[in-house]
Amino acid sequence: MADFIQPRTLKGFRDLSPDQAYRRANLVRALEDVFRSHGYAPIDTPAMEYAEILKGKGGETSDKELFEWTDKGGREVALRFDLTVPLARYVAEHQGKLTFPFRRYHMGPVWRGERPQRGRFREFWQCDADIIGPETATADAEILVLMIDAYAALDVGSVTIRVNDRRVLTGMLDKLGVLDAAVPVLRALDKREKLGDEVSRLEIAEVEGLTESAADRILDLTRKRANDDETLAVLKDAVGDNERGLAGIETLERARELVAAAGKPASSLVIDPGIARGLDYYTGIVLEAQLDALPDIGSVGSGGRYDDLAGLYTKSRLPGVGCSVGIDRLLAALDELEAGGRGAAPAVLVTNPGDERLPEAFRFAAALRAAGISCEVFPDTAKHKAQMRYADKRGIPYVVTPDEGGTFFLKRLSDGATRTCASGADAVGWIAS
Amino acid sequence: MADFIQPRTLKGFRDLSPDQAYRRANLVRALEDVFRSHGYAPIDTPAMEYAEILKGKGGETSDKELFEWTDKGGREVALRFDLTVPLARYVAEHQGKLTFPFRRYHMGPVWRGERPQRGRFREFWQCDADIIGPETATADAEILVLMIDAYAALDVGSVTIRVNDRRVLTGMLDKLGVLDAAVPVLRALDKREKLGDEVSRLEIAEVEGLTESAADRILDLTRKRANDDETLAVLKDAVGDNERGLAGIETLERARELVAAAGKPASSLVIDPGIARGLDYYTGIVLEAQLDALPDIGSVGSGGRYDDLAGLYTKSRLPGVGCSVGIDRLLAALDELEAGGRGAAPAVLVTNPGDERLPEAFRFAAALRAAGISCEVFPDTAKHKAQMRYADKRGIPYVVTPDEGGTFFLKRLSDGATRTCASGADAVGWIAS
Which among B97, B310, B358 has CB closest to A138? Predict the structure, then answer.
């Protein structure tokens, strides 16, 4: 054996196969179309940033998971671990040139040195859309409509957006006289679905200053109800005249009204007082998206409102609201739903008829492509049988064989239907149908 | 002043503004459509690889330019500097699962720690398409047709693909009895356009074993002629009965014939015996793409045939041919041609009519989007004048103002034309026209 370098990827990293990459590209394009249809413009930022830009923003966990090193010029650098910190840096750096309200989307890979586990990778994609500037329920509602439109454009079945407002939760705690306990309580609530009511209850009851009856009360107030009207009634009762709580409820009511005005089905949005989102920086609405067919796969998107995006880099206060679509979970869902297609193969293989008649094959293929039908000519000399085997292996649905005498023999592999055509243009109707 | 972290990118790195990112996304999508129409399927590979995978393949220069470090698990890792080495690793690793001929495209960022200079960045995109397996002129011709189709799908005017075959050059040198000097001669030829005939001549004359008259002869044989027929006649004469040279000429003739059969204009392909391509691994055709409107911007794409893709990782010999479209140079060209559009703005702004009538605005916007018209509602309360100023600043062409009484006032900002509509659906014809 010669000394070969073992071809392999790093632990926690992976290649995307043609089918996987094809599906991801299609998800990305569909999302891009929706984002653009709502007036969001793309930006891109470098994968590498000064480490100081990325550190201290995402909390201790992300610092530990950062891929960081000293480059050959002696700079401390790191790979971005999300697209929010680069957005913050971008807006702070370019704010003089940007037009506010500033709507942007950004899709690309991010890197985290997490302990590898099933379905989690050290390189994964994020697809974010945010609107920076307005502190209004209008902007919140816009993000909800955007998310509903986004999932509707994908091949993943119906999706429910679960929405809450952090101020309802904190208003409620304020009313119960335990506002100081807000952070640990929100964290415990966030894990409720994963760990169950009982664990959550114990965790909440352990929070300093909380009685067991307060824990029970919190768990009851934040559970799912039969419908939004009932939920809102319970929440209104719970927050009473607490201003913060009332503002949250008003935002949820407003969002619901505007989502309905945009013609979205009532079932696409559910007010769920148990949605807390672990991240500390959310201050208004918080949201999670769930596939109705695969609720157990977990959230396939999330988002919320924040008070100040870029406080680390600028004195300008930059409030905003945004969402992030979970592309990698959606890819896993497509696998499970057997949706998204193999699709990476072209529609037609034109077999190689030998050197002399190869120009006819090239002409035929070009005519199909001009009509929007993807097509390849077998690029090597091989027995006809071997070429048919190739078509079958790749899942190419149609095979065209140049005949003697300038005609073409067409075969649909799914049912064996055949036809003879004089040219590529002639074949278009049959193949497209 | 508080202690802010200075928001900035690393030296040699850059952000893409909304307009730039919009243009790049459009280039990428157009290329993706063309690649797919030819039966190419996408793959993706990680940005990070084991350093040993990436080292020693691209030559000393790329090793020096590698971003490499030791990760927290003690592994020597690096960022990919092109998409060809990852393709080699990918094919070697997964060859048992792949169907050959294997056509793949791959688009994404790569990283090189080059000395920053105008128009060169340390992070840039590559867009590659390759076909692995066949050693045929058919596959070579397919890559040429693919490249011609690719540029035709972009908004960059007419493009000339200049093609040569390395074997013609080496056959010619063989015939002159100076085959040993092939590598330095090819390198000198490669720089001819940049440095001029005289410098090239001196460089060639300095190659060991070459007389000045041989240098003159090489320069003469490899200069551009009036047309391909003349070029081919000169080259045939020069290679005589040299087998390698004849194989090269036959490939060029075949490629020309098949490109014409695919209906491509004769002007899109030119045989240019001076094209050498500096990279050592090309063994057959070599090609470069040039914008007819901006020849001085340099090559906007290149490619060629190689004997063995993945010899470092596997004993399987994997010949192939491929091309790489220079996205970043094309973006610079779009800037210079003032093409590609600003485009990142939506078609319509619906102004914010105040809380009470906001649902009407959301309904109107949804109807436009359903008809494929991009649209945003101003998400904040602001004077009507300020909202108009925003539309103007972002370059939004239409503004819709919800009127009292349920109608909508439409204005086209380019010419001030106006209209009144009852609903979004009602407005579609006028806005789309």
Answer: B358
Among candidates A42, A374, A381 on the partner chain, residue whose Cβ is nearest the Cβ of B18: A42
Size of interface A-B (CB pairs under 8 A): 310
From chain A, the residues in CB contact with B75 under 8 A are 10-11
Q: In what order do the strands lie in the sheet with B76-79?
A: B48-50, B76-79, B68-70
Nearest to A45 among B15, B312, B379 (CB): B15
Taking CB atoms and an 8 Å cutoff, what residues of chain A touch B99?
390, 393-394
Residue of B nearest to A42 (CA): B18
CA distances from B360 to A251, B383, B419, B424 (A): 18, 18, 18, 10
Question: A21 and B6: CB-CB below 8 Å?
Answer: no
**Using CA atoms, how far apart are residues B365 and B396, in angstroms rounded to an integer?**
14
Instruction: Report the 10 Å Cβ neighbour count for A375.
Output: 26
How many angstroms separate the CA of residue B374 from the nearest CA in chain A? 4
Smallest CA-to-CA distance from B360 within B405, B325, B317 is with: B405
The CA distance from A4 to A1, in Å, is: 8
Task: For the domain made up of B18-337, give the CATH fold.
Answer: BirA Bifunctional Protein; domain 2 (3.30.930)
Q: Test A133 with B380 for CB contact under 8 angstroms.
A: yes
Does A13 contact B90 at a Cβ distance shorter than 8 Å? no
- Return the H-helix or E-strand segment holding B130: strand B123-132
ipTM value? 0.94
Tally the C-alpha atoms within 13 A of residue B294's C-alpha that lie toward its C-beta: 17
Nearest by CB to B39, from A52, A263, A376: name it: A376
**CATH homologous superfamily of B348-432:** Anticodon-binding domain (3.40.50.800)
pLDDT by residue (tens digit) across A55-91? Answer: 866 566 678 899 999 999 999 999 999 999 999 999 9
pLDDT in tens, chain A (433 residues): 468 999 999 999 999 999 999 999 999 999 999 999 999 999 999 999 999 999 866 566 678 899 999 999 999 999 999 999 999 999 999 999 999 999 999 999 999 998 877 778 999 999 999 999 999 999 999 999 999 999 999 989 999 999 999 999 999 999 988 888 888 888 888 888 778 888 878 888 888 778 888 888 888 999 889 999 999 999 999 999 999 999 999 999 999 999 999 999 999 999 999 998 766 789 999 999 999 999 988 899 999 999 998 999 999 999 999 999 999 999 999 888 887 666 689 999 999 999 999 999 999 999 999 999 999 999 999 999 999 999 999 999 999 999 988 899 999 999 999 999 999 999 999 997 6
What is the Rg, in whole angstroms, of the alpha carbon atoms belonging to chain B? 27
Residue B289 · residue B299 · CB < 8 Å: yes
Torsion angle, alpha carbons of A61, A67, A72, A73, to 10: -40
What is the maximal distance between C-alpha atoms in chain B?
91
- Could you give the C-alpha distances from B138 to A296, A409, B144, B229, B276, in angstroms and in order? 50, 21, 10, 21, 21
Chain A residues within an 8 Å CB radius of B7: 53, 89-90, 92-93, 310, 313-314
- How buried is A229 (Cβ within 10 angstroms: 0-12 exposed, 13-18 middle, 19+ buried)? exposed
For residue B53, give the nearest of A5, A14, A50 by CB distance. Answer: A5
CB spacing of B25 vs A32 below 8 angstroms: yes
Residue identified by tokens 């739903």 is A337
Is A138 within 8 Å of B352 when comparing Cβ atoms?
A: yes
Distance from C-alpha of B310 to C-alpha of B98, rounded to nearest angstrom = 15
Q: How far apart are CA B206 and CA B224, in angstroms?
A: 23
- Smallest CA–CA separation between A166 and chain B, in Å? 21
pTM above 0.90, yes or no: yes
Domain ranges in chain A are 18-337, 348-432
- Structure token pair of residue B262: 């695919």
